[in-house]
Amino acid sequence: xxxxxxxxxxxxxxxxxxxxxxxxxxxxxxxxxxxxxxxxxxxxxxxxxxxxxxxxxxxxxxxxxxxxxxxxxxxxxxxxxxxxxxxxxxxxxxxxxxxxxxxxxxxxxxxxxxxxxxxxxxxxxxxxxxxxxxxxxxxxxxxxxxxxxxxxxxxxxxxxxxxxxxxxxxxxxxxxxxxxxxxxxxxxxxxxxxxxxxxxxxxxxxxxxxxxxxxxxxxxxxxxxxxxxxxxxxxxxxxxxxxxxxxxxxxxxxxxxxxxxxxxxxxxxxx
Length: 271
Known about the structure:
Blueprint: H1 5-15, E1 21-23, H2 29-37, E2 43-44, H3 47-53, H4 63-76, E3 81-84, H5 93-104, E4 110-114, H6 127-143, E5 149-153, H7 164-176, E6 181-183, H8 190-200, E7 205-208, H9 216-221, E8 226-228, H10 232-251, H11 263-270
Parallel strand pairs: 1-8, 2-3, 3-4, 4-5, 5-6, 6-7, 7-8
């Protein structure tokens, strides 16, 4: 039975009410279905993983490609999908609002807007502009019914500005501007995580874990509400492909193929 977008959105909001859950990031319809099959309660797209799946670099896809991807994943599973919507695919708040309206129509249960510009010389939007962009996203969601969960992201740590005070200032401003959840990819230490959680409480915080890091239980003890893994699952998939392909190309042997996931199990899962 197909679950409606309204019900998915209600379920997604409920997940943010207490505890901590894993929000893994599929990169295509198949990986989305596999994660749902494993029992995850919600999933999130990954800009990097999707870009690599269509032969592009991260942040080099256009809004139409992303909207098609979000529609496909949302229709493929009966669990909530959160959209990595990058910077809203526009600079001005009006453009962000227009694209967020289109994203809501794909059936996603949540979406995130980040404050990075893509310009290494000036990596973050000016604070007032960044806040206005979150406000615009909030207004677009509210105009469409208001049930899509909005995550405000501060990208400072990922762009060489590991200034925790700056991050907290921005996240609290994004919360006041209407973000339902806050996210600062790149924070890692217990002290950083705890400081962010306390600063934006009672609103929930998303924590990115890309390799070794805190366990689910440890993150929950710090007050984190959800954990995402970004492009890590996609990187794992590409690791297997590249190992096997390099062996074939460079050695003319095929031993790596023996470590592949059983085809019969995949057919059973997708049947």
